[in-house]
Structures are given as C-alpha cells and as structure tokens.
Amino acid sequence: KLGNATAKAELGRAAWKLMHTTFARFPEKPTDEEKEALRQYVHLFQRLYPCGECAEHFGQVLKKYPPQVSSQKAAAQWGCFVHNVVNKRLKKPEFDCDEIASHYDCGCADEDKDKDK
Ligand code: FAD
Q1: What is the pLDDT of residues 17-45, one digit of tens each?
Q2: Are residues 97 and 23 in contact, defined by beta-carbon separation less than 8 angstroms?
Q3: Could you tell me the CA-to-CA distances from 107 to 18, 22, 73 in Å, in that order?
Q4: What is the pTM of this model?
Q5: Going by CA atoms, what residue is nearest to atom 42 of ligand 1?
Q6: 23 close to 79: Cβ distance less than 8 angstroms
Q7: Is 55 in the pocket of ligand 1 (CB under 6 A)?
Q8: What pLDDT, on the 0 to 100 scale, is given for residue 113?
Q9: CA 89 to each of CA 6, 19, 92: distance values in angstroms, whole numbers, following the listed order
Q10: Nearest Cα residue to atom 14 of ligand 1
C-alpha cells in the first residue's frame, strides 16, 4: 500500500512538472493551431493519465474549468489554478500563482541560439 502511494506521488510530481513546464514554454501569442494543440494536449493528458482515480477526478476539474489557451500567461495561470484545485482536494497547501513564472524554467530558453551546438 505504501509502495503504491509512493509511486502515485512520484508520478504526480513528474506529471505536474512536465505540465507546468509545457505551459511556461507556450507562446505568448499562440496561433489558432497552437491553441488547439494545447487544448488537445490537456484533454489527452487527462484521458490517458496512468492513475485512473486521478484521471477521473481531473476530468471533472476540466469540465468545470476548461484549459485556458489564449496566451502563455493564461495557460500558466490556469495550470496553477487547477493544480491548486487538486491540492485542495488532497489537503495540500495552496501554491502562490504569482510565483509561477519564476518557478518553471526548463533551461531551454536559448534553444534557437544553441540549435547547431
Ligand atoms: P505536487 O502536488 O506533486 O507538486 C509538486 C511541486 O509543484 C510542489 O512541490 C510545488 O513546488 C509545485 N506546486 C504545488 N502546487 C502548485 C501549483 N498549484 N502550481 C504550480 N506548481 C505547484 N494523487 C492522489 O492521491 N489522488 C488523486 O486523485 C490525484 N489526482 C491527480 C491528478 C493529476 C492530473 C495529477 C497530475 C496528479 C494527481 N495526483 C493525485 C498526484 C498529486 O497531485 C501529487 O502530485 C502527489 O500527491 C505528490 O504531491 P507533492 O506534495 O509532492 O506535490
């Protein structure tokens, strides 16, 4: 039982990290195609999320709070908000969403410059 709980928590930390980092790297002015891609990404993430109980709950969250894809900031704030909805349900502390911009840096900001390296 402990093993299961540990694995579920590790999966959660990895999944949230990927999700928030993806939002941090989303374009400030996305095209319609990019908006639709992010929307689909979030919905497929929910549908295929390996923890069934988590996926079911997150599906309810998405119904109530559909992904915000109009800009990088909107996506990042939405991601922070829905993570806080999950935190609340799991009785975890609320994260300050003003801190989100400085918290998720993948180290790939210079990727265009470094493309040939
Ligand atoms: P996590 O919640 O994993 O957060 C990791 C780190 O992200 C934190 O240490 C903090 O630095 C940062 N962070 C915290 N809150 C925010 C925020 N709002 N915005 C940005 N960054 C933040 N577990 C269950 O037991 N039951 C479930 O039903 C369940 N549903 C889940 C649904 C989804 C979609 C996901 C991705 C995970 C779910 N989990 C669920 C796992 C759970 O959310 C945690 O990931 C896990 O319990 C580990 O928690 P943690 O305390 O290490 O921090």
Answers
A1: 999 999 999 999 999 999 999 999 999 99
A2: no
A3: 13, 12, 18
A4: 0.93
A5: 12
A6: yes
A7: no
A8: 55
A9: 18, 19, 8
A10: 95
Length of the chain: 117
**86: Cβ below 6 Å to ligand 1?**
yes
Is the Cβ atom of 43 under 6 angstroms away from ligand 1?
Answer: no
Q: CA torsion sign, 24 to 79 to 73 to 41?
A: positive
Q: Which two tokens stand for residue 51?
A: 């923890």
Q: How many CB atoms lie within 10 A of CB 87?
A: 14
User: 3-class DSSP state for residue 10?
Assistant: helix
Separation CA 69–CA 57 (nearest Å): 21
Dist CA 15 CA 23 (whole Å):
12
